[in-house]
Amino acid sequence: MSRPVFPYADASTLADDGDLLRFCSTCAFSLACRAEGLDKQELLDLHMLVEHVGPFAAGDHVFREGEPFDAIAAVRAGTVKTYVVERDGQEHVLGFYLPGEVIGLDAIDGMRYPCNAVALDTVSLCRFSFPRLAELATRLPGLQQHLFRLMSRDIGKAMRLAGDWSADQRVAAFLLGLSRRLSARGYSSRRFQLTMARTDIGNYLRLAPETVSRVLKRFQDDGLIAVDRRDVELTSVAALEALAAPIRGN
Amino acid sequence: MSRPVFPYADASTLADDGDLLRFCSTCAFSLACRAEGLDKQELLDLHMLVEHVGPFAAGDHVFREGEPFDAIAAVRAGTVKTYVVERDGQEHVLGFYLPGEVIGLDAIDGMRYPCNAVALDTVSLCRFSFPRLAELATRLPGLQQHLFRLMSRDIGKAMRLAGDWSADQRVAAFLLGLSRRLSARGYSSRRFQLTMARTDIGNYLRLAPETVSRVLKRFQDDGLIAVDRRDVELTSVAALEALAAPIRGN
DNA sequence: CGCGGCGTTTGATCTGGGTCATGGCGGCGG
DNA sequence: CCGCCGCCATGACCCAGATCAAACGCCGCG
Known about the structure:
42% helix, homodimer, four-stranded antiparallel β-sheet, alpha+beta, DNA-binding
């Protein structure tokens, strides 16, 4: 989490709202805050405390379990995986974070990162010092509200994953979740790459990697998807949604 | 959530810190804020927006899924269960909330309660209007920080429950979690009552109620606990902790 | 171009816990 | 005091998915 840093020293030179919007879109986090009603000056204040860090190469760690917490980060590009290692050496994947999503929120309580975060491909981040962000949030109610929403959303998401769903339901919900999240960031919702290994998917969904393979194979045989290695195409979103329906959201 | 209301109209009459502490202890929420560094005046501000609601009788609903969200609540006495009902009628327990714990945080994102909350015994609550609480939090950094921590903690808790633990591990962690949370509020950590039915425990831990029964029986045969109907005594905390170790926290 | 390793696929077998069925027990109302 | 009803316990059986085992590509490297 300490890397080449490119703070927005020139933030005050923006000319008009068009500039501002383009400026914001480099970091999804502030875009979301814009939706919460922050005005131009407030967004500039927010951007003054962003550090762009990265790129991280696949396999690089963004932070490690136990390190002191000082910042949350929004993914700007790439995929981040968070995980813990059980005492028996078993890896336990907590989440995958795509562009626009925020990592580190679970570290606020405890003031240490409770898990490891690793880049799955080439990753760039927007880093926000949390003390400074919290301080700013006392002056910008929209920012505070955005933080509350983000955290509230993560609570709901984690609770949903905890259900006792079947392997089919889990995999279908996982694929649809990726699809939805990618399309929200402008990528195709039908075709995309799995940036993570089958083993990672299994460790995330609490399934053996063999089971993930088998389910994907069966989905393909049944015409729900087309898989080739890490490339996926959803060929029957409706059927997937029927399977995943009970796990709303994700 | 609309019930007899007893706002703290007389908050400003407190004489000294002893009074204040006793005053705070009626609501664990503000006690925790006190630890975050709120001073006397700030605590009084906080108390001005508390509403004591209840009592609710066993089976009464505190709120229902889909209702508009306007307030979070700290449990003052009793146990609250939150749950959702799947489309197939299956009940899915999301959590049990003991005195001092806060319900409704998962409703901030979405502005509607995403689940039902029901009293398992006689329940009293401290209700905090969320818009007013958020507004106050912009003026009291310690309060904001406390809210961030609470939500961060819930994220971690939900993620831990999502692991693929064995029935023994789940039940052991559940018992220890209750023990720890109860003792934090001054109750015995060795002997306590299960305020929820076996079915509820199963729906929370993703186990069939029969499995809960069997595991409790085996724990008793192995000398880890003594169970009689809803009364439990932990007779070998060490052994339980060895089982539950991987599920740290709870 | 051949080699080696890892991620993945596929098949065979095993098992933890779910499901179904039955029976006991304690509490409450009549 | 009796009988009903909901919760709990216990046994028999079954199945989804884990585990074990083996072979197959894809890819980087010498």
